[in-house]
Protein backbone atom coordinates (compact mmCIF):
# COMPACT_ATOMS: atom_id res chain seq x y z
CA UNK A 1 0.00 0.00 0.00
CA UNK A 2 1.35 3.43 -0.82
CA UNK A 3 2.16 6.08 1.74
CA UNK A 4 -0.50 8.37 0.30
CA UNK A 5 -3.22 5.74 0.76
CA UNK A 6 -2.18 5.15 4.36
CA UNK A 7 -2.25 8.90 5.06
CA UNK A 8 -5.71 9.11 3.48
CA UNK A 9 -6.91 6.29 5.78
CA UNK A 10 -5.47 8.07 8.84
CA UNK A 11 -7.16 11.31 7.80
CA UNK A 12 -10.53 9.68 7.13
CA UNK A 13 -10.47 7.90 10.50
CA UNK A 14 -9.58 11.17 12.25
CA UNK A 15 -12.36 13.10 10.50
CA UNK A 16 -14.98 10.44 11.24
CA UNK A 17 -14.00 10.21 14.91
CA UNK A 18 -14.23 13.99 15.27
CA UNK A 19 -17.93 13.77 14.44
CA UNK A 20 -18.59 11.49 17.43
CA UNK A 21 -20.41 13.32 20.25
CA UNK A 22 -17.89 12.30 22.93
CA UNK A 23 -15.25 14.13 24.98
CA UNK A 24 -11.94 14.96 23.38
CA UNK A 25 -10.06 12.48 25.56
CA UNK A 26 -12.11 9.62 24.12
CA UNK A 27 -11.70 10.92 20.58
CA UNK A 28 -7.94 10.82 21.00
CA UNK A 29 -8.09 7.32 22.46
CA UNK A 30 -10.41 6.04 19.70
CA UNK A 31 -8.20 7.61 17.07
CA UNK A 32 -5.08 5.93 18.47
CA UNK A 33 -6.76 2.55 18.83
CA UNK A 34 -8.28 2.54 15.34
CA UNK A 35 -5.17 3.80 13.59
CA UNK A 36 -2.83 1.41 15.42
CA UNK A 37 -5.23 -1.44 14.58
CA UNK A 38 -5.18 -0.32 10.95
CA UNK A 39 -1.38 -0.23 10.97
CA UNK A 40 -1.13 -3.79 12.30
CA UNK A 41 -3.73 -5.05 9.81
CA UNK A 42 -2.07 -3.39 6.80
CA UNK A 43 1.50 -4.39 7.59
CA UNK A 44 2.52 -7.56 5.84
CA UNK A 45 6.00 -7.72 7.32
CA UNK A 46 8.12 -5.96 9.93
CA UNK A 47 9.50 -3.47 7.40
CA UNK A 48 6.03 -2.26 6.48
CA UNK A 49 5.07 -2.13 10.15
CA UNK A 50 7.99 0.16 10.95
CA UNK A 51 7.23 2.34 7.92
CA UNK A 52 3.53 2.64 8.82
CA UNK A 53 4.34 3.45 12.44
CA UNK A 54 6.77 6.13 11.29
CA UNK A 55 4.15 7.52 8.88
CA UNK A 56 1.58 7.60 11.68
CA UNK A 57 3.97 9.37 14.05
CA UNK A 58 4.71 11.90 11.32
CA UNK A 59 0.98 12.32 10.72
CA UNK A 60 0.39 12.91 14.44
CA UNK A 61 3.24 15.42 14.54
CA UNK A 62 1.74 17.38 11.63
CA UNK A 63 -1.79 17.27 13.08
CA UNK A 64 -0.54 18.39 16.51
CA UNK A 65 1.36 21.25 14.90
CA UNK A 66 -1.77 22.35 13.03
CA UNK A 67 -3.86 22.07 16.18
CA UNK A 68 -1.43 23.92 18.39
CA UNK A 69 -0.90 26.64 15.79
CA UNK A 70 -4.60 27.13 15.24
CA UNK A 71 -5.49 27.22 18.91
CA UNK A 72 -2.29 28.66 20.31
CA UNK A 73 -3.13 31.18 22.99
CA UNK A 74 0.27 32.80 22.59
CA UNK A 75 -0.30 33.27 18.87
CA UNK A 76 -3.68 34.81 19.59
CA UNK A 77 -2.16 37.20 22.14
CA UNK A 78 0.54 38.27 19.69
CA UNK A 79 -2.06 38.89 16.96
CA UNK A 80 -4.18 40.83 19.43
CA UNK A 81 -1.09 42.86 20.36
CA UNK A 82 -0.33 43.64 16.72
CA UNK A 83 -3.93 44.73 16.17
CA UNK A 84 -3.88 46.97 19.28
CA UNK A 85 -0.28 48.10 18.64
CA UNK A 86 0.93 46.56 21.92
CA UNK A 87 4.05 44.53 22.47
CA UNK A 88 4.27 41.52 24.72
CA UNK A 89 7.44 40.17 26.25
CA UNK A 90 8.05 36.43 26.31
CA UNK A 91 7.69 36.44 30.08
CA UNK A 92 4.34 38.22 29.93
CA UNK A 93 3.04 35.77 27.32
CA UNK A 94 4.23 32.82 29.40
CA UNK A 95 2.64 34.19 32.58
CA UNK A 96 -0.65 34.79 30.74
CA UNK A 97 -0.65 31.20 29.41
CA UNK A 98 0.22 29.85 32.83
CA UNK A 99 -2.75 31.66 34.42
CA UNK A 100 -5.15 30.39 31.76
CA UNK A 101 -3.75 26.88 32.03
CA UNK A 102 -4.32 26.87 35.80
CA UNK A 103 -7.92 28.02 35.31
CA UNK A 104 -8.51 25.34 32.69
CA UNK A 105 -6.89 22.65 34.82
CA UNK A 106 -9.27 23.39 37.70
CA UNK A 107 -12.16 22.35 35.47
CA UNK A 108 -13.34 18.77 35.59
CA UNK A 109 -11.72 17.27 32.48
CA UNK A 110 -9.38 19.53 30.50
CA UNK A 111 -7.66 18.04 27.48
CA UNK A 112 -4.45 20.02 27.92
CA UNK A 113 -3.04 18.35 30.99
CA UNK A 114 0.60 18.51 32.11
CA UNK A 115 1.16 14.91 30.98
CA UNK A 116 0.13 15.90 27.45
CA UNK A 117 2.79 18.62 27.39
CA UNK A 118 5.38 16.09 28.57
CA UNK A 119 4.38 13.63 25.84
CA UNK A 120 4.40 16.35 23.19
CA UNK A 121 7.86 17.59 24.12
CA UNK A 122 9.20 14.02 24.03
CA UNK A 123 7.68 13.54 20.56
CA UNK A 124 9.19 16.82 19.38
CA UNK A 125 12.61 15.85 20.76
CA UNK A 126 12.34 12.46 19.02
CA UNK A 127 11.64 14.07 15.65
CA UNK A 128 14.42 16.61 16.18
CA UNK A 129 16.77 13.71 16.92
CA UNK A 130 15.71 12.00 13.68
CA UNK A 131 16.29 15.16 11.66
CA UNK A 132 19.79 15.80 13.02
Topology:
Elements lengths: L2 H16 L5 H19 L3 H25 L2 H11 L6 H17 L7 H18 L1
Give a structural overview.
With 132 residues, the chain is mainly α. The protein has a domain of 61 residues. Helix content is 80%, strand content 0%. The chain contains 6 helices and no strands. It is elongated and about 55 Å long. It starts with a helix and ends with a helix.
Helix content: over 70%
Cα Rg: 18 Å
Describe the global form.
Answer: elongated
The tally of beta strands, per DSSP, is 0
**H/E topology pattern:** HHHHHH
Mean pLDDT: 76
Question: Descriptors for this entry?
Answer:
132 residues; mainly alpha
In short:
Helices cover 80% and strands 0% of the residues. With 132 residues, the protein is mostly helical.
